[in-house]
Structures are given as C-alpha cells and as structure tokens.
Amino acid sequence: MVDDADISSEVEEIARANSLAALMRKAPTAESLTECEECGEDIPEARRKAVAGCKRCIDCARKAEKTTDRMFPQS
What we know:
Oligomer: single chain
Number of strands: 0
Strand content: under 5%
Radius of gyration: 19 Å
Structural class: mainly alpha
Pfam family, one: zf-dskA_traR
Order of helices and strands: HHH
Domain Zinc finger DksA/TraR C4-type: 36-66
Distance between the termini: 39 Å
GO molecular function: zinc ion binding
Keywords: Metal-binding, Zinc, Zinc-finger
Helix content: 55-70%
InterPro entries: Znf_DskA_TraR
C-alpha cells in the first residue's frame, strides 16, 4: 500500500531529476573567450580549457562572485 511519505518521496525524486536535467541543459558548452568581457585582459589558455565557456578573467570572475554572494547570501 502506498502512503503519503512514498508519494512525497517520489515527487521529490522527480523534481530533483528535472532540476538536474535543466542544469545540464544550461551547462556552458560554448568556447571560452580569449579576452575578458569585463576588463579586456587576456584569459589564460589554462583557464579557458578548465572552465568551458568562461567569459571573464579570474579577477573579474572573483569580483562577480563576491557581488553575487552579497546579493544572495548562502546562509
């Protein structure tokens, strides 16, 4: 016999699978830029290879992440 906990568990599993599928569709597959879109500095080849679709140099990426963390704290 199926109870509410089983149904909730199944709904949660489906939602998690859908969320993961959506994230995978959004994963960057484009080539990385050779110059940072923020400051125009060259993006090192190692970073371009390590981070698919990167558009910022490491310094600008850190600044953007700090801004995001201030706007959306992870607590």
